[in-house]
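Example for reference:
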Amino acid sequence: MEQSTLYDRPDLYDLMAPRDPLLERFYVETACERGGRVLDLACGSGRLTIPLARAGLQVVGGDLSQEMLQRARRAAEAQAIELALVQLDMRDFDLGGLTFDTIIVALNSILHLQSLDDFRMFFRSAARHLSRDGRLVFDAFVPNIAMLGCDPNKRQFVGRAIHDTLGNVTVEETIRYDSLTQISHVDWYWSTDVEKDFWRTPLQMRAIFPQEMPLLIASGGLRLAERFGDFDRSPFVAGCRRQVCVCVMA
């Protein structure tokens, strides 16, 4: 069975990360409130970077994966959109003194950070790149008992989609949660109609509990200014599945 990271195959990644109009509208409208320059961290294949640029914003997309950046570049060129794309590690980055009115980390990407040092470095790096009245905006799922209590030997259905050359593709997952580190060790198993488990991709996702979130943000010199329960800006209350966070300088 082939094993590599999910971000080595942007064509497969995009199958399991289809467009979300509500998410897209939230981030574009939030960035347009400030205008000016936007940094889209963990931008991946440009699914949010391109709509931000189309809205007339000055956008820089940053990602650790060169393969994802290449796919974003091709997608932008196909739509005649100019993008500035840079390879970076969001835990510690320096864009040569550039500051941004909005910094975005969408689609749970902040949960790829794991240790307290990771979060501290990330929030400090973001703070260094914010303009005076700038905002860091990101989303993260709310941990729940069902997710944390999964049987690590039992596969769960993730999704099914049609690939241009592979045909029908089905993804299943196993999850092993480490309560000490608060990290879910996830394995995705990819199958087609003719080949079961042709690819396995490991993922590690850090759980951030609601009471913990403001403390992590403060560790980097920022503060949590607003928190919504979804991309429709509904209040963050018990039962919400997302933490949609807006952070400003402390």
Summary: The mean pLDDT is 95. The radius of gyration is 18 Å.
